[in-house]
Structure formats: C-alpha cells, structure tokens
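A note from the maintainers: we've had questions about how concatenated examples are separated. There is no special marker in the raw files; a new sequence line simply starts the next protein. For clarity in this README we add a label.
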Amino acid sequence: MLGIDLKQYRQFLTKNERNKVYLRKNSSQGRSIADNKYKTKIRLARAGVSVPELMARFRKGEDLRSFEWGKLEANFVIKPVLGYGGEGILIIRRKLDSRDERGEERYLMMSGKIIGLEEIKLHCQEILAGKYSMHGTADNVIIEERIKIHPMFFSLTKVGTPDIRVIVFNWVPVMAMLRIPTEKSGGKANLQQGAYGLGIDLATGITTFGIEGKGEEVRKIFDYRKKRMIKVNGIKIPFWKEILETAVKCQRAIPGLGFMGVDIVLDKEDGPKVLEVNARPGLSIQLCNKAGMKRRIEKIDDINVRSDEHAISLAKYLFGEKFSDKVAEKEQEKKIQPLEIIKMKIPRGFKPDLQKSPILKQGKHRVVEVRAKVDTGAFRSSIDRNLADKLGLMSVEKILYFRHYKSSLGKHKDRPVIGVTFWLQGKKVVTAVNVADRSKLRTKFLLGRKDLEGFLISAKKI
C-alpha cells in the first residue's frame, strides 16, 4: 500500500467529512442536475462547455422498440441517466460485418467482448427498469458518441478511453488525476472496477504517482507504443490549461454545486469534452496524489474568486507541487547557503522600474537577480512590497488573496499573497508568497521552508 504518514493522513478528506460537511455546499437542485446525465449534458452545452454528441434518448420501452438501430455503426456509448460508479455503461467500438447463427447483428465492445443486438436491447430495458439507477427508480437511457481518443493516449491503453477527473471547490481546481482503463476494468476509466489512477500536478499537468483500483500502488505501466514498462510519473497531459478552464466552467454552469468532480476526455480533434459531473466524487484521488484534500479545501473556503483565470492561478500557485518532489526516485538534494541569489520571473510585457538589476534570460523567460535570505522558521516565503511593485507582481491578477493577521502592536491587517515564479540553484519554484514591508532589511526576499524542499542548507553563519 501507499506510504502515507500520520501527519499526511490528518489532511485527508474522509467520507464522513465529505458527506456531512462539504456536500452542504451542494444544493438539492445542483445535486439533481449532477445525478442526471441528461440534465447535465443540456446544462453544460447551453453554457458553452463541450460535451459528447447525444445520439438518442429512451424514456420508455416504446422509444427503444421504435429506434432505428441500423444507423449506429460504430463508436457509441449506452448509459443510464441516473447511474453511478460506472455501472450499466456499455462502450461499443463497432458493428461487426458477420452475424450470428440466428442472423442477429453483433457488436464489438471496447473490452473485446462481442455482444448481440438483442442483448443490447435487453440491457436498455434493464436500465429503464431502474437496475442501475442511484435510488433504484425507473430510469432513462442515453446513447452518445464515443470520443475519438487523443493520440497521446494510444500508448497507455488498448481497451478504452482515459479521462481526467478534476475536483473543483469554490470555483478552484483542488486536485486532479488521470484515469486509465484496463482489461480488469472492462475498458472503463473507473477505479472501483480496476482502472489505473495517476495523480496530476496542477501547476504543470504532469503525472506524479499511481494506484490500481482503490489503492494498490503502481510504479510502472505498460507503454504499447514503446513495447515496454514506463514510470507512472512524468507523463505530460495535453491541453492542460484548457482542461482546468473547462472544469471551472462546469461549476459556473451549475452554481448549486460548490464541491464537484468533473470527468473530462480529450478528443483528438476537439480537445477537452466533459463526460459528466459528480456531486459525490470518490476520495481515492487523494491516494494517487499522495496529498490530502481537506487542507486544500480549507485554504480556499473563504477566498473570493474573481474570475476563471484567478481560479486557475490559485490552483497553480497554492496546490502545484514541485515535480522533483513527486517522482519515484528523488533528485539529489542541492546545497544552499543562508544567503542566496534567486532569479525572479518578470510578468510578460511588463517593464520593471529597476536601476541596478539588469534583466537576464532564464530559458524563454525574463528574470532579475534578487538576494534572498533563507529562514526555516518561516513557513511561507515573503517579498518586499516595494520590490514586488517594481517587478509588476502587485497587479490585480497576481494577487491571489489577502491573508488576515494581527501585528505586534495588536492591529488587524490584511497582507496580500501573490503568485511568483523564481529559480533557486537552477531549480524552478512556482509558489505563493506573502507581501510585507522589508524596506528596513538588507534582503528584500525571504525563503520560507515551504519552498526549500529538496535543498540542504549550509550551517555557515551569515
């Protein structure tokens, strides 16, 4: 099983906490939309969110009997409208040219199983009767297009379409994972049925850790293109910014859901498309990220999110992990001094008001060198307000939120927290830092321990 210490476990969101506390963020109207795949599809489409094309809907047996099945040749999915946990879903790859001994049409499923038309109709009747519905009540059937898999995923599976689940709370993406279907899961991207779950770094869209099913750790998976095993970490997800934007738009489209899971697939031509939203997302996503959702949700619970761009910035700077800290084999730790020179990124298009510090290049980015003091007594790094202003870091879009604190004189104040990017000993750090008055101090930037993971600090005195 996964190596998670007790301190980390306390930060995990438990099922009881999810049900008793955070589901209160979801109104009955919002939950009714999320629990109904047809209502969800219509609501999202009206809001401009891309969803798979609806090919048919059966509300009663007569609809099923009168439907022209001959027009469905390939690539379609049959779903119960009120289903949950991936139950009752049939994924059809194509119709076969040959028929069985009774002359019945046959179809090839994504799992490799061959199914007859009469068996498909019987399955639809069971859906209508409520066999797979969440509360055992009569249900509807929808048939929608099967997404044409993005070429990047061809190497990861041969039995289904991978998807990305993003958990959104208070408009902000707080955690994400890549779900990969397996033969064990029957071609479905569902962890309960045996699919792989790979944690994703929110800042970069790069996979980190992996589990199989409900929690068995996986370090390597088979690459069908390279014909060998590859590490689960280091897989770059295409359209990452667009995926996060899509997840945020889903919550905007269904405002009654303050806490939701969004399942997104990547079409090779159209990019991100939303399969469904979930008002009760599973909690195994925490295992494949080796991180707790409880702490993340608490951090953004009271933040006023100004826009979709602000929501993504919060996710990137607050919850993005340093990739070197997430790989299976850690990089060799670098030694740093109590005083270090860091290279701070300048926002694109901004002309800094600096006289002594020349503008340098760090790859494709413009940077300036800033002297920084290492302080392991401080959790979060901080920057001088005047320096931050000169570097263009105090603009509205850069301020993530205001942190309330009490000064030594007993006065209550609000301190801005901004998103910054800098390089320390060549290592890129994307983080959130406090803005403070350091005008009377020699160093205008203080490095807190949150941004010092992976470094060894010299004992040399300043």
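[label: protein 2]
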Amino acid sequence: MNNSIITNDITIIGAGLSGLTLAYLLKDSKYTVRIIEARNRLGGRILTKGYNSNKPIEMGATWLGNQHTQCIALLEKLELEVFNQKIGDQAIYEAISTSPPYLAKLPPNPQPSMRLRGGTEQILQALAKKLNSNTIIRNQPVVRLTEINDIIKIETPDHTFTSNIVVSTLPPNLLVSTIEMSPSLPQSFIDLAKATHTWMGESIKIALTYSEPFWRSNNLSGTIMSNVGPIGEMYDHSNYEESFFALKGFFSGNYFSITKEQRLAMVIGQLQKYYGHQAEKFLHYEEKVWRNEPYTFVPYNDHVLPHQNNGHDIFQNSFLNGKLIIGGTETSQRYPGYMEGAIHSAHTIAKKIILT
C-alpha cells in the first residue's frame, strides 16, 4: 500500500450519477471534494457501449420521462438533448407458452419515455468536464472506513485518505457487505441495508444491431412483451440520427450463470418466433450481466423484492457522528431506482452539506 495520505473536506465513494452530480453541485462551494471510484470507468450502472462512434448501445440506465424534473433540469443545464423512445402503436405480445405471439394494440402514452442523444454516458462526460481534473481517482475500491477523532480515514488498496465528511453512493447492500467500518454501523441499519434491493443488480441487458430496422415493416413491431421469455421486454434501440439500428431488451436474470453463447442462442430462438430468419442476420450482440459485477451487486441474505426498502427513512440519517452520509438512487425518497432518484439524492445531500 502507498502510505501517502490525501486529505479532503468531502470524499464521495462512487463516480456514478449520484456521485458525479453531487461533486458538480459542490464544485463552487467552500469544500474540497474528491471522488473515489472502484472501477476504471465512470458511471456505475450507466454503461454506454459504442459511444465514440455515435452508435450507442445502453447496457445500463436508459430512459427518463418528463416527470423526472430534476434530471430534465440537469440535462438542460448541461445542454444535452433527449428524444422520444420509439414504441409504436402495437407490440408483439406473448401471453403464454401454449399460444402463439400476436400483435397487440398499444394505448396512447401521455408520458413517453426518452433517451439521451448520443447515449446516456453523455451526462457522465458532461459532469466530469465540469470538475477539476484531479477530483476523481479511479481503480480504488474502498475497503475500510475508520472514525478517528474528527475525521474519517478511508483506505483503498493503494491509498489512504482522510476526510471530514464521507458520502457513500454505493447500493446499501454493497456498502455494508464490502467495506469494513470502525466503529461498526448500527445493526438495525446493516440488517435493513442487506434487505434493500439493488437497482439493476439482477438485470441482464441484451442488444442486437442490424443493418436495417426490419421490425418497422407492416405487421411487425420493435416492441416486445413476453410472459414466456427469456426476453421479457424489448424495444427499438436505434440512434437519434437513424443511421444505426438495434433492438435492446431485458433477458431473464435467472440465466446469469450460463455462457454468453448460450444466452445468445436463446435470444435468437425467441426472436425467430417473431421475425423469422431476419433475426439471425444481426451484426453485433451485446450483453451485460449486472449480477456478475462485483462493484454493483452482492447476493442478498434472503429473498428481496424489486425496490424493496428503496427510499427508506433510515437512509436519510447520517452515521459515525454525522461524518458518514448515505446516498445513491436506492436511498432517494423520490423515484428511487431511477436516474431521477440518483440526481435527487445528490441534491438532497448537497443541501444538507451546504446548510451544515
């Protein structure tokens, strides 16, 4: 371990959307801010593949809506553009395995989903550009937090940091399962954190690119809803410029332990039922098994339901004599488990810090 000690007023654990937004909100304050990120990339559960070639494939957070007002406001401030997700007026629907799929009429959607032009990663790049170049330290998973008098000592494999305030933006279950605390956090908090759902944690996202959007032909659709699976939902994922065509969806998380090749075979097998041989003519296949990401997911002790304990009151408290603040989308009391929740959490914590 490098024994050099790096001191900051505020240290943020995690360079995902919450962490980057919080650093951005505090950049003109009186505090020095540092972000420590375990991965070699920014974004956490935002992951855009193909970003540099303007052929974005989202393997993580993708959609937002007009009801996500803080997210919309941040995008406007960063001068980022959104566009409506293509849904169409009908969807391929597969109700049960003993009946064939059919085209179902979709009702009008008063609140359409939107995507970021150029990919969701645009917001990460825009926020990072607003910060000082030395604000973010990557490839440093935090392994230990120790309260010593009026500071917190933060240890990673290569560095030791000290900070007056530490903000964790990690999923609560990940936080209490991977970071040693001294003194220990209250057992009531640990038990609840371990029973808190990690957004995206069990998800498997899959996408296929094609030379043309054949699903837009008559009597077809790029919107798929299936109770049979293993793809439960799928959508047209072509880019804003209409120069790149893709389908993206959610694959059953139960298949996390099989190989990529086995999942691909199952994907093609299902899509052939809807599209015939056209489904086989894909250019690229992408997938992300979030359960296999150690800096996102750790197994729960017991069965946990989607969004379970997200936004719980206990996450609004601070710990270690007020020096440890808990943040991130799972802790937000507004749209927890969405990008809006991540941004709302950052605003809530920034206000708490500035008013302290």
